[in-house]
Amino acid sequence: MQTRLEMDVFPVLGHKPIADITAPQLLAMAKKVESRGALDIARRAWQTCGQVFEYALAHGMVERNPSKDVRPGSALIARKKEHYARIDAKELPELLRKIEAYVGSPYCQGSPNFPQPWSFKFPHPVEMRCRRVSGQARP
């Protein structure tokens, strides 16, 4: 949080007394961060400034919190949601054949120790790391 303030907030707002900072100035700071493509950082900087203003308000240093005047969702660009990759049920048999045919590290290969069918239960990552291969514990 300190680094975020030092890199993004202080260069724009650090020279002003906290009581003199307005919502448009706060928005200009967030837009500057947003302009370099750091959408999440712009929102976090806004949130951090809001926390600083809450503290200042609670201790009588300011009369109001300018971060509450404008919601970041209405002023800043929303991050585009990305969905996780998935496969259709039609593609599952081909994936399972490729997994079964994989030739590589014995720790990554399919093993008869796995419950069948694979499509119903994949092992937990801890089970993968701690399983025994050819009767030997994994180093």
Largest sheet: 2 strands, antiparallel
As for the number of domains, it is: 2
Cα end-to-end separation: 39 Å
Total DSSP helices? 6
Under CATH, the homologous superfamily of the largest domain reads: Tyrosine recombinase, N-terminal domain
User: What is the CATH-assigned architecture of the largest domain?
Assistant: Orthogonal Bundle
Helix content: 40-55%
DSSP strand content: under 5%
Order of helices and strands: HHHHHHEE
Radius of gyration: 26 Å
What's this entry about, in short?
The protein is an all-alpha fold and 139 residues long. Helix content is 47%, strand content 3%.
Structure report:
The protein is an all-alpha fold and 139 residues long. The protein folds into 2 domains: 2-75, Tyrosine recombinase, N-terminal domain (DNA polymerase, domain 1, Orthogonal Bundle); 89-137, no CATH class. The chain is built from 6 helices and 2 strands; from the N terminus they run H-H-H-H-H-H-E-E. The protein has a two-stranded antiparallel sheet. Helix 1 crosses helix 2 (23-35), helix 1 (2-13) crosses helix 3 and helix 2 packs antiparallel against helix 3 (39-58). It is elongated, with a radius of gyration of 26 Å.
